[in-house]
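Re: the multi-chain job from yesterday

Posting the exact lines I submitted so nobody has to dig through the queue logs.
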Amino acid sequence: MAPAFSALTLFDVVLCVLIIGVALCSSSVRDLFAATVLLIIYGVFVAIAWVRLGAVDVALAEAAIGAGLTGVLLIGAVARLKITESPAAAVSRWQFAAKVIPASLGLLIASGLAYLVLTVEWRETLQAPVLANLPDTGVLNPVTAVLLNYRAYDTLLETSVLFAALIASWCTTHDDLWGERAGLRQHTRRAGILATFGRFLPPIGLIVGIHIFWAGADKWGGAFQAGTIFAAVWILAIMAGVIDAPNATGRSIRSFAVAGPMFFTFVALTGVLAQSFLIIPVMVAKPLTLAIEACLTLSIAATLMLLVLGAPRRSA
Amino acid sequence: MSVIVTATTILLLLIGVAFFLAGSMGLLRFPDVHARLHALTKADNLGLGFITLALLPQAADVWIASKLVMIWLLTMLAAATVSQLIARSALHEEDVKQEPGP
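And the result, structure tokens for all chains:
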């Protein structure tokens, strides 16, 4: 027993050192592209850390959104910054301050959290009440129960924020290009490697995404993880020229993007008629939760896909 | 029996790690994009292949084992596609650099 324990401890210590090291590299390196790549690596390490902590749901979300999607968005941003970047724009004093202030704040928060975790004795956590009320939520995965039932308003606000981000992204569209297809025009060779890949992978990705959505009710998975996979599949199919990129004025893509927050708000408001805001009745908890989650998955997929493609642009 | 299985796993893992190490060295040391891709793809595919083979005897059932094989195949497919795309875009960039006329 003892040797296995120490090997795992060694693994954890190495992982922690790697996480801190990569985080420091990412925030101190000068080249923006290198910083982004290091941030993606940081996300992968953090996902492994979540697995070690037994939080597989969070690990899936971190890998899909923290490392994957944020990485893609940042790489896109770096690529666009390259065009406008001027090399001689270094104001050293402010740059120094811009690094020291967030670093000290981060250190302060980290040491505060470490102090709390190490010194405070947790006599009573919310674990027991969460598990005790699980039958009323209609799902078996406590994380899904927290996200879609106990703390449903958090998730409602989260998806609304995502929707707001999409509108902000649409607002950056040039007037002449409004109504064009999202993002750059894609150039793909017919029956080329990317086109073949774009036809082969999406069916597998769809099956994995549906599995993760469905599994989210009882085991690990959920709307955000599945939505991100669907978004990735969607983007791949667009890049490979299998389907066309949507345009922001299209009615169906708009209803996809709004379906989740709208249905969620609808459920929340009907709760007012019964008892109070955002009540999910025990009788229909399982089907209602699944329906909300399905709409959310669709909206998250559409929104993330549109965010990655960005506003319509003329190809250079 | 279990000693042989464990020994096989450890041996295959070590071979896999050796390939990953060689691939990473190549990625860091080789001079241009194509050479680096060569190092990365060969070593990556073989490294991951050996690690998958190493984990197969440890899998609890056929279901998990087939998931492992599936991950390996999908990673190889993605790696092969991506390296082709990177190589082609590198070739394109070289062309642009050589003849800046049109």
